[in-house]
Amino acid sequence: VKDELDIDLQKQIMAAFDSNTKLLEHLVNALFTGTLSTNYSDPSGPSDAEVEAVGSICAFLHVMFSTLPLDVTMTALAYRTDIVPALWNFIKRCHENQRWPYFSKYISPLPVDAPGWLLPVSVFCPIYKYMLKIVDNEEFYEQEKPLSLKDLKALVLILKQALWQLLWIIPSHTSPSQKALPNPLGLKKMSIDSLKSQARIGLSELLTQQLQDWNSRLPFTAESDFYSQEATSENFVSQAILGNTRASEIIKLAPFLAPFTIRVKIFTSQLANSKQSTASHSALTRHRFKIRRSRLLEDAFDQLSLLSEEDLKGPIRVSFVNEHGVEEAGIDGGGIFKDFMENITRAAFDVQYGLFKETVDHVLYPNPGSGLVHEQHLQYFQFLGSLLGKAMYEGILVDLPFATFFLSKLKEKSNFLNDLPSLDPELYRHLLFLKHYKGDLSDLELYFVIVNNEYGEQNEEELLPGGREMRVTNQNVITFIHLVANHRLNYQIRGQGRHFLRGFQKLIPKEWIDMFNEHEIQLLISGSLESLDIDDLRLNTNYSGGYHPDHEIIDMLWEVLKSFSSDNQKKFLKFVTGCSRGPLLGFEYLDPKFCIQRAGVPGLEEHGDRLPTSATCMNLLKLPPYRTKEQLQTKLLYAINSEAGFDLS
């Protein structure tokens, strides 16, 4: 047995695989034949022959991953072999029997206590992750291919435990005192550290970028199944907040192991530390801008775009100029800036302005044709990115529902076929038709081109160099589908997304936002989806103008709010704060605190006929002293269901 292959022979093998992926398919399938099953028919542990087959296949593929082009290799393995169900069957049986084999023939140096799952898992994860990029909703949820939903739940638990073991329990480097198992054949073996590294990456990416995303769309398991119990302890949380600890490193590498609320606390702590570190700079430089209400977006763009990263993190004070050119009265202690943020985000992200479009699900994404509408569209996207970053930095919730495939840009992440239904359901159906077509696809005379249509302007674009001459066939249709989805979801909005991200990251670094998936980022932007907790709001409310916690009018108000439907409770919250959702960690974190102020002159009962009003910039409700609970309920319902009650003064 030679330590390594002859260089010329190695080049010939690589060339053979590179030019003919069927050779790779046949070799992998041949190793399976008569040895490994894709069905869970035998609950006992794997035989010696099965262990030998898995070891051979996984050791071979581990080398292939770093040698051949990944797209070619993964496409062949994911769609032309049964390696995913076969390896899962092997992993599942080993786990259930609590008996993992030693692959000592293939790994060096192998400590006695090295986990037996390391080699198969490091190969299974990247292949299955790649397969899930092109799996459609019907296959995943209805046909339950390639794994059943029941198996997916078990898979999440197994992979989570394996990842926690790699990150927390197993040391990253082999200790000199650890004895390696004997190597009687003298084979050249793989490094265990390279396997650990590949396993860590594969486990984290499969769990975070695919399985957790699928579970967010339509749950197949409890959200808590992704959490590690050890990551919920107070000690772990305090260490993660402290930074430069193993706990903080785990939050960077595998944030989903900790519950969402814990990650929000860490995020809040990071914001507080950032504000404290820039406090001295902020004390010396206070920026005050005059904004015309008639040219809100343009004035804000012209002035705020000039601010540096440090300046953006500091206090920004705004005064409004009315239609007569007169500066409106009032000192901005933070409330007017909150009002400004609510108004400018509403205007800038309005589809009528042309920078953003709306999907069929009524969520926002960058307009691919924004350059046809605004000459400075990319500069505006960078400005809007900094606006959204500033809102999150200051804890200002804004009612902006973004498309998931756009929020992934904040994580510098690509989108795939299963993200397409939200953007273009018709194109998605056409691609599925091609994917499941039983005949000869070359008869359809499709080529690797796509037609863009923006504002009546059509142009044809090649998906690959020479795409106009490249016909879609049964062999390359998966690549075609992947390229079309990539074009619509990633390529078309690459410039807008890149500039938006540049502005956003001036305030919110990538490592902070990487703690959350896209659905959680939406919660950070717009607040909790949970029903309004009236008791929590009451515990965190201030009073003025003669009202106090035990005032009879106040008691009536809380009773009325509790009797409201969930929809009317959200309308009330939007009426008084400008956002229909509450802070993620409760109303203790609402800034400024919600306040109820008595409206009118005390002692004058005629004020009881007035409507309640609000000042959203101060989270303030101005409530007249109504005579009865019924009157209060009628007036409040009228106010929250119309614009009559808004008072931005």
Task: Tell me what the structure shows.
By secondary structure, this protein is an alpha/beta fold. The strands form five sheets. Strands 9-10-12-11 form a four-stranded mixed β-sheet. A two-stranded parallel ribbon has the order 1-2. It has a two-stranded parallel ribbon with strand order 3-4. α4 (70-80) packs across α6 (118-134), α6 (118-134) packs parallel to α9 and α21 (425-435) packs antiparallel against α22 (477-491). The protein is globular, with a radius of gyration of 29 Å. The model is unreliable at 173-188 and 644-649 (pLDDT under 50). The active site is at 617 (glycyl thioester intermediate). It holds the Pfam family HECT.
User: How far is the first residue's CA from the last residue's CA?
Assistant: 85 Å
Sheet with the most strands, sense and barrel status = 4 strands, mixed
Count the beta strands. 12
CATH topology of the largest domain: Hect, E3 ligase catalytic domain fold
Radius of gyration: 29 Å
- Which architecture of the largest domain does the CATH hierarchy give at level 2? Alpha-Beta Complex
- Please tell me the total number of domains: 3
User: What is the SS-derived class?
Assistant: alpha/beta
Uncertain stretches of 5 or more adjacent residues: 173-188, 644-649
* Strand order in space, largest sheet: 9-10-12-11
